């Protein structure tokens, strides 16, 4: 959604051997160019065609007029001492890119069906006792 192409790689801090850790570097252009939507970022979604139900529901909520992503971001950034953190075109780009993500999910659902694309991560796992009860009947 931010359009940050730099998130496709990482570095390892290995000065202490096996106790190293990941570093994400180069966030100078963290929100990319507001006028350019890099569609290749959607390749993993378009190729795998799977998304968690909770993620999809949150994205759909942020596309609703009363909870629009740009408005939520704008409001949350008002308190930042560096405000304005993002320009209006960058905020509006978030909404536009969100629609691209939802369209990619929609295409997957049209092709493979919702049951194959939307992973139900909201179901409560059954307890072992519930499983045993089914075996006893």
UniProtKB/TrEMBL annotation:
Keywords from the named record: ATP-binding, Disulfide bond, Glycoprotein, Golgi apparatus, Kinase, Manganese, Metal-binding, Nucleotide-binding, Transferase
GO molecular function (one): ATP binding
Protein family (similarity comment): Belongs to the FAM20 family.
This protein's name: FA20A Pseudokinase
Chief location bin: Golgi
FAM20 C-terminal domain segment(s): 2-117
Active site (UniProt): 6
Species this chain originates from: Dicaeum eximium
GO cellular component: Golgi apparatus
Keyword Manganese in record: yes
């Amino acid at each position: 959604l931010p359009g940050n192409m730099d998130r496709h790689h990482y570095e390892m801090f290995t000065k202490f051997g096996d106790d190293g850790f990941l570093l994400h570097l180069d966030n100078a252009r963290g929100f990319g160019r507001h006028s350019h939507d890099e569609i290749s970022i959607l390749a993993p979604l378009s190729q795998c065609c799977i998304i968690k139900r909770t993620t999809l529901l949150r994205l759909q909520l942020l596309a609703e007029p009363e909870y629009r992503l740009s408005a939520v971001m704008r409001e949350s950034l008002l308190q930042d001492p560096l405000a304005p953190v993002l320009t209006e075109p960058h905020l509006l780009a978030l909404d536009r890119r969100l629609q691209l993500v939802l369209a990619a999910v929609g295409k997957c659902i049209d092709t493979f069906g919702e049951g194959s694309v939307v992973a139900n991560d909201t179901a409560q796992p059954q307890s072992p006792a519930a499983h045993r009860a089914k075996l006893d009947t």
